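Why does residue order matter? Because the sequence determines the fold. Keep that principle in mind as you read this record.
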Amino acid sequence: MSATPVPIARFPKQARRVAVYRDESKRPWTFWVLATLFTAYVLALYGPMLCIYLLSFQDVRGGLVFPMKGLSLHWFVDLFTQVRTGDVKGGFERSIILAILVTVLTVVGSFMAGLAFRNRFKGDGIVFYLMIGSLVAPGLVLGIGVGLLFQYLGLQASWYTSALGAHLSWTLPFGVLVMFAVMSRFDRAWEEAARDLGATRWQIIRMVVVPILAPGIVAVALFGFTLSYDEFSRTLQTSGPLNTLPLEIWSMTLNVTSPSLYALGTVTTLASFLIIGVCLGAIALMQRRRSNKMSEQQ
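Structure:
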């Protein structure tokens, strides 16, 4: 039996709307409005960054504005050779080391918190809100508080002590929240299976929990690194006599009026993209290896 066709005349508006959407050469006006808004948003977001990247490749005649004058790597060389640009190399090294320390502590603390909060315990709500309470306080106020605490205790503030604590008050809450989301998808039946096979608690964590949660752990590490690497407000009053890279850039804006600032922005952006690419590649590799192992077992 063939279905009786329904006259299109009975649904004139619906038929016209379907015909318009089926014709790929025609788009509703709302599509073009949204596309224009999205394009303007992308240009406003990445346009200034693109200008900085272009202006950093000028020659010695270059200035801070367009038009460009020549094309060379002069300002990149100037960045690491001229004393007037500040201690860029030292600030970069300190920021990298501090970010690595913060990343390790954030991953370990978040992972342990995720394991602990899988079971309810007395006072867990208080502990949780104390962990994320630092997100409410402004970063500058919290940094001042940490600096005053070190001064009251008679301790010297430095980038690897007081600044480390100030950064952890920012990265740990985010790491804990991300780890909670990762742990919520973890099936505890895998732990029970490993326990039935005679695995110890440490073996279960090392051989079952960590490999399964590895992509999430890498995500927490990336979160901690990026938050610490460019943190300014919490570092301003806690870094001591030596600046991290964000503080060094801020001080350079007060006395450097050359494209060296643009070159520094280009270098730091490339370093950030490289680290992000490595982390995303590690996550993709882990997921690929896991899928290959599952296909081999099947």
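The radius of gyration is 27 Å.
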